[in-house]
Amino acid sequence: MLTLFIVSTLEGWPDIMLSSVDSTKMNEGPEIEHSTNYAYFYIIFILIGSFFLVNFFIGVLFLKYEEAQKAENKGYTPEHINWISLQRMVTEARVAHEKLNKPTGLMRLKMYNLVTSDPFDIFIMSNIILNMVQMAMTYEGSSDGMNNFLRVSNYFFTLVFLIECILKLITYHWSYF
After folding, report:
1. Pairwise CA distance, residues 118 & 124, whole Å
2. At how many degrees (to 10) do helices 118-136 and 144-172 cross?
3. Spans of the chain, pLDDT less than 70
4. How far is Cα 164 from Cα 58, in angstroms, rounded to an integer?
5. What is the mean pLDDT of the chain?
6. SS3 label, residue 36
7. Alpha carbon distance 10, 46 (integer Å)
8. How far is CA 43 from CA 19, 31, 48, 53, 99, in A?
9. Fewer CB in 10 Å around end: N or C, the chain?
């Protein structure tokens, strides 16, 4: 039962499967890949037990949701439903943060135009991607030159993100948060 529970939760099931595949007869020690047919049991159990039952559960939820939606719209014509949807959309509409917090001062307006421009967004996004690549380049046993490069590039990315934060704080003040 514990094995089936572990496999159904998908937590740590490869270790259990590998132990089963290495098992032999009673009172004998394990042999590497002695009973490879056990792996098929785990794969089939995962496909049927986890994925099929989860999809079945989600299907039932969608069916109940659809039934509740039909019951809620009972007695309304399609025109009524469209009108209600339009009224909800109008009442829930909000002004975009950038438009609501557009600065009025000349210097802040120039910074606003800078921080909301597409080239600035592309520059920041490319720095985020390069920073992720730089963080992925760390490995144990790297040379001193590599460690220095990673440290200096980390300082550079930190400086870029700090400047971005300062520019946006000057532009948006506390509405930045």
Report:
1. 10
2. 150
3. 96-101
4. 43
5. 85
6. coil
7. 8
8. 15, 21, 9, 14, 53
9. N
Label residue 141 left, alpha or beta by phi (over 0 means left) and psi (-120 to 50 means alpha): left
- pLDDT for position 139: 87
Distance CA 135, CA 151 (A): 10
Locate 43 and state its tokens: 């794969």
Measured distance CA(99)–CA(16) in Å, rounded: 56
Amino acid (one-letter) located at 103:
P
SS3 74: coil
Distance (Å, rounded) from C-alpha 43 to C-alpha 88? 47
The sign of the torsion formed by the CA atoms of 75, 80, 86, 91 equals: negative
Report which residue type is found at 134: Q
Sequence spans of domains, the chain = 2-92, 97-176
pLDDT tens digits, residue range 56-100?
888 889 999 988 888 877 778 888 888 888 888 888 887 766 666
Handedness of CA 72, 95, 117, 136 (dihedral sign): negative
Structure tokens at 8: 């159904």
Question: What is the DSSP track for 93-123?
Answer: ----HHHHT---SHHHHHHHHHHTSHHHHHH
Query: Residue 55: exposed, middle, or buried by beta-carbon count in 10 A (0-12, 13-18, 19+)?
Result: exposed
Q: Is the pTM of this model over 0.90?
A: no
